[in-house]
Amino acid sequence: MRSLIIAAMHSTSIVPASRFSPRAVGLAAAVVTVLIWTSFIVIARASADPNRGGTLTPFDIAFCRIFGAGLVLLPWGAWLSRRDHKRGQASSSLLGLSPLPVRLTCTIGLFGGLLYALIAYNGFVFAPALHASVLMPGSLPLWTTLLALWLLGDRVSAARALGLFLIVMGDLMVGGASLLRAFEGGEVWKGDILFMLAASSWAMYSVLARRHALDAVRATIAVTAFAFVAYVPIYTVLLLAQLVKGQVFLAPWREVLFQTLYQGWGSVVISGIAFTRMIQYFGPVRSTMITALVPGLSALGAVLFLGEPLHWNLAAGLALVTLGILFGVRVGGRP
User: Which of 61, 92, 238, 301 is spaced 20 to 30 A from 45 at the CA atom?
Assistant: First the structure.
């Protein structure tokens, strides 16, 4: 891991040009993002679902995610901040842990780090992974397009609008049925709403990253720095004072270690840098549409590994969302 960090530092500061073309880097980042996002949905549901015997609560898993990412990214951020200060380019914040200005750090950290993690993990308590497969990556292009219209002044072609319409219809096929069952006392609709909110939070981060032309590494460090400072100390105090029912300090160490490594290093460090790098090449709207494989692959994983039933409305919603995303990617203009 130490050699990986040194190599990445070297690549962001010394090497003037990449050995690979921007297209190759963008495509590689897209592949990494799709693979991690797919496994994230299956693993998060298996970990947060109280019926599967997991010890950790959603807030514990968020703690492991942020703490694990901080072990790698906070020293990295401090190194970048010191280097920038020596060059007279000081713009760091949060006591030098973030290499970006404080306002930008707090904004992207709130949407891309803290809110996304807390909302998404709590969604898996109520709704199955099949719903998350459709509603999180599926609704991401919709939210990103709306936010890009507002913040970036992007335009939506008629063809892309049709793709977004298919996505909305697919989301309604999944979430609409859950909302109707709310009157029968079910709780799946709560998870569906949380998944949609998590997607909107991540969409805001992706649009802000493009708006400010953020470097992938610096953006990921800043997101983690804010989430770490805002969450880890407060949650630790609440746990020690027994004001919340977290189990992160009492759970089996193997479970805590796995969540720390996967959620922190995989879902944040590797996936965060890859996703932001993908945005730099493809743009926010096309980047979220490239995740067309995530709904299908994660739904397949939920059926195979979690034994979740694939009802007709879920299959129809999955097909509509995937078709809408693919349609938007194929007819979208050049980035």
Answer: 238
What pLDDT digit, counting tens, does each position of 203-257 carry? 999 899 889 989 888 999 999 999 999 999 999 999 999 999 899 999 999 999 9
Q: Do 236 and 37 contact (CB within 8 A), yes or no? A: no
Residue 293 φ then ψ, to 5°? -75, -20
Distances (CA, A) of 191 to 58, 79, 112, 151, 175: 12, 39, 19, 28, 9
- Is residue 92 within 8 A of residue 84, CB to CB? The reply is yes
Helix (H, G, I), strand (E, B) or coil at 98: strand
Q: Which residues pair with 93 in a beta bridge?
A: 98
- Sign of torsion, CA 171 205 273 268? negative
Report residue 288 as tokens.
């979220």
- Our measurement of the distance from residue 334's CA atom to the centroid of its chain's CA atoms, rounded to an integer in Å, reads 25
Query: The whole model's pTM is what?
Result: 0.84
Q: Which residue type sits at 33? A: T
Q: What does DSSP assign to residue 50?
A: G
- ∠283-286-292 over CA atoms, to 5°? 140
